[in-house]
Amino acid sequence: MLLDADADADADADLARDLMTTRDTDPDRNPDPTTSARPTRPKVRAAVPFTAAETSDAVELMASPEGGGMLPRHPVVRGADGTVEAWSIRMILADPEGGPSKSPRTLARAAEQGRLFRIRAGVYAEPESWNAAFPAQRHLASAFAIAATRRRNPSVFCRETALLFHGLGFWSIPTSVCSRARTLGDSGHQRPTKPEGMRYAQFQETRHLKPRQWSRLAESMDGAASPWPTASPLLWGTERIVLAGVTVVVERLALALADAIPRMDPVEAAVILDALMSARRTGAGVHGKGQTAAWSKESLDALWGLSVSVTSAQRLRAKTRFASPETESAGESASRVVIRDLGFEVPELQHSVYDHRGRLIGIADFWWKDRRLVGEFDGLTKYLGRASYSGRSAEKVVTDEKIREDAIRAQGNGMVRWLASDVRTPALLEAKLRQAKVPYAPLAA
């Protein structure tokens, strides 16, 4: 969306809204949460403050109870009554010694009656809070539930789930919680269920074997300096995050990226990689201090060395080379990939538009210089009154946008706007770009 040079957007609230990025397209519940807008890129803070104690194979991250950062409070809080609120979802953990209200039989009966929703065996949620939560919250709460039921042999979360724990948002939240399988027989899928009356089903759990090649890579890289921005020099260990007394084990960011990015479609990969380069993190993550630094192109290129095959390295290389620190939201990252894949010329990003007196009118998302054409990804959150990123009323936002667009056109520029729904249905975006006469990229010789 077009940025007013004088706008006073709330950067923390804007970043926290990234956790709402979702496959759900219900316009009443989730109008268009992929948008963000900032006149200047703010200094990004960790979502939750941590104290770290390094060990030989892991970093123990102990969440401080006061919370802070982009979330109004800690994402996982244990109440005085023993219930747990995890990412806004009120949960009850079965405890045979916790009294009648927490007995496994009582909770199972309540789930059968529809009064509770079973996330995993022994972990239940209030249906209202489960249905009201955003997909990223349900995904992370599901991972927490898995960790809570496997305390003797903790699950190691990897791939997309690890990326969510590290505070990276998605264009479409994965519907499967990813963890490491200990043996070949342990790998595979656990199918989700959707009880009657529930809007959203359980998240599927998929267990993946750790790549065998990583053991050889670990030996060859032993003692080498880490090429990635990180709070710890340890690459091959895990991070142990203690949340409300439950230990959650997460694979390190570089490993999660090297394993997940080659398997992702180009849109999802761009959203993740652009966020890394621009130091964007969501409020849903529980990453520690030092984990939110911007990644350089060199840092992304270094991921190639963790590839488990030539094909994986080629896919990773193609995606990291297209990444850009200039996109300001998941919607802009997704738009840029779809524009390229439709065959159009890839536009410039964050172009400053001035009037005839040299005064800044605003900063455009996209710019096709030869056509003097401005492109705008419109996220609907800016029209939601107090819930908008600026806090302005919908009427005020619409009026300001109209004045700004008229000022841009008065300088001889054209303009084309599109929504998240257009990006998710490329034919719709293609029609708008063709009508605006966006140039096609020249064919390769």
Please explain how this structure is put together:
Residues 1-43 are annotated as: Disordered. This is Transcriptional regulator, AbiEi antitoxin, Type IV TA system. It comes from Citricoccus muralis. The chain is an alpha+beta fold. The chain has two domains: 3-8 and 329-435, Endonuclease, Chain A (3-Layer(aba) Sandwich), CATH 3.40.960; 50-322, no CATH class. The strands form four sheets. Strands 1, 15, 16, 17 and 18 form a five-stranded mixed beta sheet that branches. The protein has a five-stranded mixed beta sheet with strand order 2-3-13-14-9. Strand 4 and strand 5 (84-86) form a beta hairpin. Helix 8 (266-277) packs across helix 11 (330-341). Residues 1-73 and 383-390 have low confidence and may be disordered. It is built from 14 helices and 18 strands.
| DSSP summary: helix tally | 14
What is the end-to-end distance?
A: 35 Å
Biggest β-sheet description: 5 strands, mixed
| Low-confidence blocks of residues | 1-73, 383-390
Characterize the overall form: globular
Task: Find the count of extended strands (DSSP E, 2+ residues).
Answer: 18
What is the percentage of strand-forming residues? Answer: 15-25%
**Percentage of residues assigned to helices:** 25-40%
Strand-pairing-aware structural class? alpha+beta
Number of domains: 2
Mean pLDDT: 76
Biased composition (Acidic residues): 1-13
Organism: Citricoccus muralis
Region (Disordered): 1-43
Biased composition (Basic and acidic residues): 14-31
